[in-house]
Design goal:
By secondary structure, the protein is an alpha/beta fold. It has six helices and seven strands. A seven-stranded mixed β-sheet has the order 3-2-1-4-5-7-6, with helices on both faces. β1, α2 and β2 form a beta-alpha-beta unit. This is Methyltransferase domain-containing protein.
Length: 209
């Protein structure tokens, strides 16, 4: 089998269809959609909040460190303590962002403080991925499911981590193939030896003051 020296797409497969990691993010958020409710926040835009929160949302906040993002309603550096308002959100969606932050542990602490008691962080990270074409110097980390579980050991509340992917989808993601170019079996099979993406649900304890 001969593989190309360069990817078929230089933008994760967006120009060919749906990037494979986005397929898994949708699977994860579909499974936990009932947790997307109330006062909720998302990074960079509110695509997933609107898709999965629907009429359960009371308000939406778009968080970004980038001041040029015209959609942002709260400019914040998640690695800076106190950068998010305390106990403000019932749900935080943080997809494919932690790998770009200098201190992932500090970011999780910031997210925990921003959740109300009983609130939930829904988070995804790449286990395998190309270096970001737009944020290369900031693209620092990759997390296996085991590594993500270890990162959450300091989280003071219930957490659950799941891995998604298999050898074929890992290859597809690196090659820039789209999810639509794979068979149903290739898309839905999960092999713990070859995670493409890891996802976590992390709750702030309901009885916490």
């Amino acid at each position: 089998m001969t593989l190309p020296l360069h990817p078929l797409s230089d933008c994760y497969g967006y120009d060919r269809g749906t990037p494979v990691d986005r397929l898994y993010i949708d699977v994860f958020l579909t499974h936990h959609r009932e947790l997307v409710h109330g006062d909720a926040a998302e990074i960079k835009d509110d695509t997933y909040l609107r898709r999965y929160g629907a009429d359960r949302l009371t308000s939406t906040t778009i968080i970004d460190i980038d001041p040029t993002n015209v959609r942002v309603t709260l400019q914040a550096d998640l690695t800076a303590p106190g950068s998010l308002p305390p106990a403000a959100f019932d749900c935080l969606i943080l997809t494919q962002t932690l790998q770009l932050l200098s201190d992932p542990t500090a970011a999780l602490s910031t997210c925990h403080s921003a959740l109300r008691p009983g609130g939930t962080l829904l988070l995804t990270v790449p286990s395998l991925a190309r270096i970001s074409p737009s944020g290369g110097p900031a693209d620092r980390w990759r997390f296996t499911p085991a590594g993500l579980r270890h990162l959450f050991t300091a989280w003071p509340g219930p957490t659950q981590v799941t891995g998604y992917g298999n050898l074929r989808t890992c290859l597809a993601a690196l090659l820039g193939e789209a999810a639509e170019e794979l068979t149903e079996t290739e898309r839905t099979h999960h092999d713990p030896r070859f995670p493409l993406l890891a996802a976590a649900t992390a709750h702030r304890a309901a009885e916490e003051a």
